[in-house]
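Researcher: I'd like a structural prediction for the single chain below. Treat it as a standalone chain; there are no partners to consider.
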Amino acid sequence: MPIMTLIEAIQNRHSVRRYRPDPIDETALARLKEAIAQANRQASLHIQLITNEPKAFSGPMAYGKFEGVNNYLVMAGKREKDLDERIGYYGEGLVLLAQQLGLNSCWAGLSYRKISGTYALDEDEKIACYIALGYGQSQGSPHKGKSAGEVSNAGASTPDWFQRGVDAALLAPTAINQQKFFIEYLGADEGELPKVSIRVKGIPFVGYTQMDMGIAKLHFEIGAGLQNFQWEQKK
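Model: Treating it as a single chain, here is the predicted structure.
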């Protein structure tokens, strides 16, 4: 069983681009495969784990200083409106599990090559991104981020669990570290559960804002803990 809690995984996990050649431990591999199968069932995704394959993160398309990547997740699913959000939410769940299992990871939106024969797609499916996995040459390092006040309305009038959720969301990986999300506590009418919303505003040349939102949602839920609230439905 993982010795690291999910909160600890969120706090300790940083993007890693350079990896050692060690193969993934068989026990960790089995846990990952089980979690991938569960995510695919729950979210109607087609996530695929590729191991011992060194080409995808090498060559002219593999910019971003990747080195020694032999294992990765192909994050794919049907071409649907909310695909990127589901990829972010369930992909980050796998990233945090990998951290619990002693592995390192890095989300990759563009810096990889699609190697023929390593994955399978149905006609109505597409690849949203890759996630590099393995044992890092280092544990990575944190990046300077925004404050809670810049990404939420957390304050004296919001509950403590909301603040904890925002703090966890601030540690969520986002495209080029843009953190272009805003988490809003909406309160509740009498007899109803409180509502929370996450809005995203992307940079025009970066098309991963919905994926970022899915990742931030998962972090928020983990940070908030066992709280009864509901996500505000998009209009």
